[in-house]
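Deliverable D4.2, example record:
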Amino acid sequence: MFETNNFYICFFGPTKIFFFRTFTSNPMNRRTPSPLPNHSTPGAPTHIPFGLRGHQLFSIEEVPRGLACDCRCPACGAQLVAKKGARQAHHFAHYRGSACPDALETSLHLKAKEIFERVRRVAVPAVFLHRQTSPIFDAQLLRFERVRLEQHLGSVVPDIILEAGQKKRLLVEITVSHSSGKAKIRQLKKQGLSAIEVDALAIYRQLIQDFGQFRAADFEQVLIHGLKQKRWLFNDKQQRIEYKLRKQSAERPVKHRYFKGYHGYIVPGCPLEKRRWGSGFRQGEPYANLWQDCLYCHRRFDIIYETALAGFEEVRQYPLAVVCWGHLPLPRAIGWASSV
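Output generated by the structure prediction step:
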């Protein structure tokens, strides 16, 4: 009695039968090495998609294999060897000495900047207002006239500045190892600078996972037209629309209700008519349950609480009002052809 590569050994005792299961290695169960290089393990060799020859970047498919590629590391300037075998995704690697930890990030950064400087266009994700599921601006392809690289805009130094006309401007941050922090986003908000972030490493990994090899043409296509690896850091037009909605919103008071031993909070006069009183002197009037309706409502900006001082900190006590714009029509981006 046996399975494939799993054998059962039977022993007969005086009163019992004992079964022991043994295992042998199955070559079909062995893990096949992934062509995707590991860039997260400290000390792991760095696989580089682009090499530098003079002042120009070359992809791995544009050069001959071995040292004949005549390329240098974009980060440290060391000699590279083009590895174009059959077992792993084709890539550059350092010829001698330890791998450079900044090689991948630098090469992707430089290539992304080179592409944007040449094509001067980018597809941007859709823009959603606070708590909304329908976009105020759809995803769109934006075209620009001028490109500036790593120049100061006040206290912000973006990777790429795309400009068209007098007012149309979009900042692009290329991320490989670290996403943009809250401090940078605060500066973008303070200066009213619309910006997107592009995850170049995610694009690189996805291409190797999908095709088994890295191709510069695919990288450029996804970098410009892809949406999955992009996100808005700040959108000035979105914030202007939300600011106007907040100014026109209403603070609807919250009423405490004690019924059958339970404490509850309701908001009378709900403009979306989440619920209606079924009996009593308020029969037919609309209201909302604070926790079941307002907390998850797409027309709520905020819940205002009564606070108290405890341990030198302001702590919330009871809900007082709901900041709601349910009485306003859904805004439309009339007069704005694009999201920047």
